[in-house]
Amino acid sequence: MTEPLLTEIDHIAIAVHDLEAAIAWYAEAFGATVDHRERVESDGVEEALLKVADSYVQLLTPTREDSPVAKYLASKGEGLHHVGYRVADCAAALEQIKAMGGRVIDEAPRPGSRGTTVAFVHPKTAFSTLIELVQE
User: Per residue in 20-34, pLDDT tens?
Assistant: First the structure.
């Protein structure tokens, strides 16, 4: 048997309209603090990562109206946006999905936040769940 491609849960992403309000709510409710914050121009989002053990809660808000997160908020409202799984080799994990006939959003891995390499798997392939593959 081959080694599993998923090594850990990297993050759970939550789309929000007001990033500052979401950060404040997590701080008040759980004592969570921002471990990393970044604006990802290529995705049109600003993120705040709240550390939870070896994973994160990623709060996302759009920085422009044409971003995928802005479209998500407009159609579905705030809430769970995607699950990020850590992988040792993003390209190999992506190729595995494609070899199985799965749909992908990214045909090849690309730069992500925190200096990671990422690729997204289409939710129609993964039981209506948007999946982000994250290689540190």
Answer: 999 999 999 999 999
> 6-135 adopts what CATH topology?
2,3-Dihydroxybiphenyl 1,2-Dioxygenase; domain 1 (3.10.180)
pTM strictly above 0.85: yes
AA letter at 87: V
Cβ(54)–Cβ(97) below 8 Å: no
Token pair 């808000």 is at which residue? 61
Q: Tell me the C-alpha distance between 125 and 111, whole Å.
A: 22
- Residue tagged 């709510």 (tokens): 25
Centre a 10 Å sphere on the Cβ of residue 94 and count the other Cβ atoms it contains.
Answer: 24
For 18, the token pair is 């007001």
